[in-house]
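Async update (no meeting this week)

Hi team, since we skipped the sync, here's where things stand on the single-chain job. The sequence we agreed to prioritize is pasted below, unchanged from the tracker. I ran it this morning and attached the output directly underneath so nobody has to dig for it. Comments welcome in thread, and please keep replies under the output.
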Amino acid sequence: MKALPLTPELLRVARRVVWFDQPEAALANPVHFLTHVMVFSTVEDLQALRGIVDKDAYREALEQAPPGIFDARSWAYWNLVCNRHPAPPLPVRAGF
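Output:
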């Protein structure tokens, strides 16, 4: 996945959806950032990403999503948005 720019809008979104990390660090890992966007964003957050992040990037984030971020509702919604149906099972931690 391509790197995300450090724009003021994306830094604002990163500060809100990845509250436990520095915004610059959050944007340095696009898959991790986008998975958090897909679960915790607002409409305004998604509008800030419009034109920067395309559906392929969201699809890639779904394919590489680490376990424990998505809830069932967000997982179902974003798989539908990205034309992945039926949705695969939620990512799970190995060994449990």
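Quick observations from my side:
Residues 38 and 63 are 13 Å apart (CA to CA).
Residues 30-40 form the longest helix (11 residues).
Reply here if anything looks off.
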